[in-house]
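Q: Predict the bound structure with iron/sulfur cluster.
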Amino acid sequence: MSDYYVYILKCSDNTLYTGSTNNISNRLLMHNIGKGAKYTRGRCPSILMYLEHVENRSLAVKREEVIKKLKLDKKVELINSATNELFNGKIMVSACLLGDSCRYDGKAREYPNIIKWSSNKNIIPFCPEVEGGLLTPRLPSEILGDNVINSAGEDVTEYFLKGAEAAIEKCDEEGIVCALLKANSPSCGCRNIYDGTFSKKLVPGMGFTAKKLSNRGIAVFDEDNFPF
Ligand code: SF4
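A: Predicted complex:
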């Protein structure tokens, strides 16, 4: 018997969509390539916000109907409730947050609360820049337009693209639908990135890997907005 999930997505126009599936990672992909549902087709990317396990298809369909009829505030309550199983499955975590010395300066950026929290979770540590072929230590890089430039002015975009592709492959392989990523990084930043002038100025934007995961529907958080 397959496992079924009822899920809620936040669409690009900030509306919520409820569905059910027995293959959540494939379903997220379908939604975000416009083949998931008529409603989400013109509202990509949509991001996973809520996941609830149910035993079979018939229960999934019933639960989906119940959630669909809830008012917006009740859906938001559900997303913030203990029944949200988004954080119970495998979670990709930026390796530097867990103490891996993979940052450009050869250091880690570990957070004791993340290491403590991760001890009883199903964590997949991942560093897109290392997976993309960059050495440690390396020169710092920032996103400038569509490219990534290091502090010597060299274009290192291809490594960042490879790292982002590797992250998607890992998520597909492992069935990962949630990621906790390091804030402000040109790979992992989910909400802000440096502005490309190497002057420590942050601007709204996403790193290459965070953007790719998010466009795939994977829920991405950083250490400042993850609900520990
Ligand atoms: S690419 Fe991500 S995981 Fe790797 S060092 Fe930078 S922030 Fe950390």
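A: The helical segments are 24-32, 38-41, 57-69, 72-79, 112-118, 128-131, 157-174, 208-215.
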